[in-house]
Amino acid sequence: MESKINEYTSCTLCPRNCQVDRTSTQGFCREKDTLHVSRAALHMWEEPCISGTSGSGTVFFSGCNMGCVFCQNRKISRGEVGKYISPQRLVDIFFELQEKGANNINLVTADMFIPTVKRAIECAKDQKLKIPFLLNTASYINVETLKSLEGLIDIYLPDFKYIKNEDALKYSRAPEYVEAAKAAIDEMVRQQPKCLFCDDEHGQHLMKKGVIVRHLLMPGKVIQAKMIIKYLYEKYGDSIYISLMNQFTPNGELQDYPEIDRKVSGSEYHSLIKYAENMGLTNGFIQVGETASESFIPNFNCEGV
User: Fold this and answer.
1) 71 labelled binding-site residue
2) pLDDT for 137-194, tens place per residue?
3) Total domain count, the chain
4) Which CATH number is 158's domain given?
5) Mean pLDDT taken over the chain
6) Which stretch of DSSP H or E encloses residue 106?
7) Is 302 annotated as a binding residue?
8) Domain extent for 53
9) 18 annotated as ligand-binding
């Protein structure tokens, strides 16, 4: 598992297709080819069927191939925090999280390390790890990269951030995001076409296989959000779950983007929920209470790494 991985020598893992030799140079993602992890711990704030009562075993990878101006996890997305670890250490982390009672292994923004993560998953499965693997991604990932994970990822948890490429470029520096995200989600659904659940010992309904597509509602972007829900529901119907999120949190760095420098209003979120209900969407999740808060952002102090 320590041998050189060719996919990093001319990196095309994401739609940027940088072709950077990441064995010696950082890509747009601010990472080379060595695993960079900022936190590995139980996380209680995912969708109920993911966190359950004992938590999701989240592994937060440092770096990111997006460039979101509103990023809540900017310390790790910029690669400013984290530890560099070996593939074998990642396998050990998987088993440690299982021992702590995690319902799944939740790989958060692992996109730029997929070739190494793939090997670690294969190793863990060979050693009889019992819980599902989940890929938590912004969907700015190439289809061929996802195909390399077929049979290894049980649950896909992708974002669908934008339906307008001009917004994707303005707010996330992500050219042609819409086409890339649509293709990526289509591949995820191809791999996991049905959502399967089981009840744990606490009676919690836990997802074992399937796809949950998330959309984070942005201030003033209700129409775009409705277009995304319409696209997803008309294409996939009840074969996927859709998670509507209202936790957009201004990060203090949005002076050049005053139109989104605020929290989402209650009326905006209510309008989106009513639209989804009127379409007939039942396989979905909504957020309640005060979710747009720094208190919901984990402390990236290398816990568990």
Assistant:
1) yes
2) 999 999 999 999 999 999 999 999 999 999 999 999 999 999 999 999 999 999 999 9
3) 1
4) 3.20.20.70
5) 94
6) strand 105-108
7) no
8) 14-210
9) no
